[in-house]
Amino acid sequence: MSLNGSHDSIAPGSLLQDSDFAHLERAAHLADSSAGLTQPHPNSACILVNEQSQVVAEAYQHAQGTASAEVQAVSQAGPAAGGTTAYLNLETGDSHGDMSSVIALVKGGVSRVVIGLLHPLPHLRGQAVRTLKAAGVCVDLLQPALAAQGQAAQQCLQACLKVNEALLHRAATGRPLSLLKYAMTADGKIACSSGHSSWVSCPDSRKLVFEARARSDAIIVGGNTVRRDNPRLTTRREGGHAPVRIVMSRTLDLPQDANLWDVSSAPTIVMTQRGARKEFQESLRAKGVEVVQFDFLTPEAVAAYCQERGFLQVLWECGGTLAAPAIAAGVIHKALAFIAPKLIGGVRAPSPVGELGNVEMTQAINLVDSSWQVVGPDVLLTGYLPSSGGLLALQERLAAGAARQDTLESSHASSSHAAAAAAAAPPLGQNGAAPRGAHANGAAPTRRWWRQCDSNVVEFYKSWDLYGALSNFSAHPISMPSRPVSISGALPSAPARQWPSVEHFYQAQKFAGVESAQALDIIEEIAQAASPEEAARIGRRNERLQPSLMRTDWPTAKLAVMHAGLKAKFTQHDGPRALLLSTASLGLSGRALDLVEASPHDFFWGRGVDGSGFNHLGMLLMSVREELLQAEQRQKADAVTPAQNGIISSLYEPAAKH
């Protein structure tokens, strides 16, 4: 059994019972528990139920790079996990390249697994199902029960789809779920003729907007909104996830002292056209604002960049001037329209959507799966645009794509030349998303410098994406000392402690060895951070605000620190090590694959948006890979062969292709 599994058909199990639907729906609701507290990620939960129909454990994944729901639930249940049924709203796959979740279920003695939704990402879809069955675990899927078991099954499926609608859009469209939010009066105005707009909707409606912000990776506005409203675009809550604020402006005709330039509470990205107001760009960067330049700034270019950035959900809070081209480009997937029982009139009062060029009512865009919700005196209308089609349509599109892929692979299975080409080819779309150039709106592919230069490259970024276990944000704790790693890479002779991830260790090392109680407090805060993302925020914030607390040799030591952390991870964890070593022989003519961190904004650790980055993380991983290969060769020379027995060991065999 390979790491990726085979593409044999996933046969349905037995018909599900009403109790199965109830537990699956409960798992779907439980999976949403971290929404707004952490950055959006695939939402998964696991509920273990014994033969007496008693829930013995339940858990959900808190954030990217934290322990999976399955691992938590089995650990929580202990010996009581034996013989239970595990209910998963989403097929497990929290870190591609690591099968810890499946291993936990098998080792815990779980006898049956019921899954509400096959994983939408193609490199994970069906993998856990096949592996569990190979291990002798009974697996039942919700999908085959739909036709035979009616309304209860349909309601359960809707719950499973809803909690991961952002992931579905990413997989089916190659873009993050884009929500267009606006508040308007009953006569369709978002502001008075003077431009005044505070407040169109009621306080209860605004609370829902703040919640939508917290559930998003980013909030997008145009230059007009910044000039007219000077917004903060925060979630209005203490703690929790702070989405990135994105400002789109081709000319950078923006105020010098806008609220969005204060990045102490949330980061800001200004997106503009290349060469616009260079001095103003530098002043923004000096304040900590990130500036991204495009050859031509369009909604599609911004959506493509957000996908490259790994965003799952983006909230567009722009005015009609930007909303119209975003809709026309097929970027917007869903509308959230708050309608207030007010009339303000005014021929020149702005409306939520600008000119779309429609001259007949038959050209109007129809929202599908629309629903109405009363919010105080307001009404909230939600509905999906044709670029989405709705959750069931997305699910059908993904299933059809998987069937076509299986047929294609089956037709080529007998050809050794085709098999070799498949093994050497780059993955289908960066980060496990749909292939470039295959979008419904017909958008041209985004430039991919690394891929165009060498098909012997594999990219990685988010832990759930292709080759995700290579990420320093993956959920793989390491045992390393708190004292500083030297610039030579030598480890201090100090007691080791457990760090939840490589990122936790790396961020803490920025302040290691500094003789300051404050520095020690920062290190401990990082060590206790609930997720790698939170650890990164703490480390970066203190690096920016309290540079005097950082170790003075950090600029020269950070490469050695990251190398030490990566080496610990890939020597202490079987799954990531097997994945890394598998890249040593999957390339053209058996040549080792080049590893590239696909971060579009990090030009030091990643490739950067235009491929001109240093890719130091990828380079370090290739160095660690070589060290591991040399260690294996020494073992063979000493006639030491690691024992690998049973189904658990077989889960770690290198993948046949990528």
Description of the structure:
Helices cover 36% and strands 14% of the residues. The chain has 658 residues and is an alpha/beta fold. The protein has three domains: 18-166, Cytidine Deaminase, domain 2; 175-357 and 366-384, Dihydrofolate Reductase, subunit A; 478-650, YbiA-like (Tetracycline Repressor, domain 2), CATH 1.10.357.40. It is globular and about 85 Å long. Residues 1-9, 413-453, 643-649 and 652-658 have low confidence and may be disordered.
What are the defining features of this structure?
36% helix, Tetracycline Repressor, domain 2, 5-stranded mixed beta sheet, disordered N terminus, 658 residues, Cytidine Deaminase, domain 2, 3 domains, 9-stranded mixed beta sheet, Dihydrofolate Reductase, subunit A, 21 helices, alpha/beta, NADP, Riboflavin_Biosynth_HTPR, EC 1.1.1.193, DHFR-like_dom_sf
